[in-house]
């Protein structure tokens, strides 16, 4: 890996952009995410920035029990996020359905059945410090050797294209 690529990876680890989506919850976890933005926790001091646009995000934060109407919407949101990307489920609802997972309920937990999830934060609701710590721990994993992976994929695509021409 070149020096420039390693610098890019370090910068990416210190500038994490997140987008959060509620797929059907009581809003308890949403309140905790918003508490992370308050002066007491101030996630921006750690280089974490919240966006409403998934095209600007690196990490998707998911709260709530996964409901049927999110079947296509969540997959579409996931596809809009550029590489490298990761998803974090926040609270018990996206992990197990929690209080909403009863006979006759129209939910389909866990979220990890529908999109790849890199980390789960259990709790009802989890504390803001747990949310911040998980994002900070996941960032180096998401951005590790991204430039190398991208170059390797480009080389493989080029090799396949040459093989198809023959």
SSE order and pairing:
Layout: H1 3-14, E1 16-22, H2 28-37, E2 48-51, E3 59-63, H3 71-80, E4 86-90, H4 93-96, E5 119-121, H5 128-143, H6 146-165
Parallel strand pairs: 1-2, 1-3, 3-4, 4-5
Order of helices and strands: HEHEEHEHEHH
Radius of gyration: 18 Å
Beta-strand segment tally = 5
Helix content: 40-55%
Tally of domains: 1
Low-pLDDT residue spans: none
Indicate the overall shape: flat
Sheet of most strands: 5 strands, parallel
What is the level-2 CATH architecture name?
3-Layer(aba) Sandwich
Structural class: alpha/beta
CATH class: Alpha Beta
Please tally the helical runs, counting DSSP H or I stretches of 4 or more residues: 6
Q: What amount of the residues lies in strands?
A: 5-15%
Q: Might you state the CATH topology name?
A: Rossmann fold
Overall mean pLDDT score?
85
What's the quick description here?
With 166 residues, the protein is α/β, with parallel strands linked by helices. It has helices at 3-14, 28-37, 71-80, 93-96, 128-143, 146-165, and strands at residues 16-22, 48-51, 59-63, 86-90, 119-121.
Question: Could you characterize what this model shows?
Answer:
The protein has 166 residues and is α/β, with parallel strands linked by helices. The chain has a single domain (3-165), classed as Rossmann fold, CATH 3.40.50.12280. The protein has 6 helices and 5 strands, in the order H-E-H-E-E-H-E-H-E-H-H. It has a 5-stranded parallel sheet. Strand 1, helix 2 (28-37) and strand 2 form a beta-alpha-beta unit. The mean pLDDT is 85.
């Amino acid at each position: 890996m070149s020096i420039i690529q390693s610098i890019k990876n370090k910068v990416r680890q210190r500038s994490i952009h997140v987008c959060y989506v509620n797929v059907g919850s009581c809003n308890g976890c949403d309140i905790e995410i918003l508490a992370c933005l308050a002066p007491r926790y101030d996630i921006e001091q750690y280089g974490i920035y919240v966006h409403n646009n998934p095209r600007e995000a690196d990490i998707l934060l998911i709260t709530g029990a996964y409901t049927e109407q999110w079947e296509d919407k969540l997959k579409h949101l996931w596809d809009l996020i550029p590489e490298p990307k990761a998803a974090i489920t926040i609270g018990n609802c996206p992990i197990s359905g929690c209080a909403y997972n009863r006979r006759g309920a129209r939910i389909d937990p866990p979220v990890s059945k529908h999109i790849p999830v890199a980390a789960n934060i259990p709790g009802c609701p989890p504390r803001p410090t747990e949310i911040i710590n998980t994002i900070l721990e996941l960032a180096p994993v998401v951005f590790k050797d991204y430039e190398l992976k991208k170059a390797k994929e480009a080389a493989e695509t080029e090799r396949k294209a040459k093989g198809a021409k023959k």
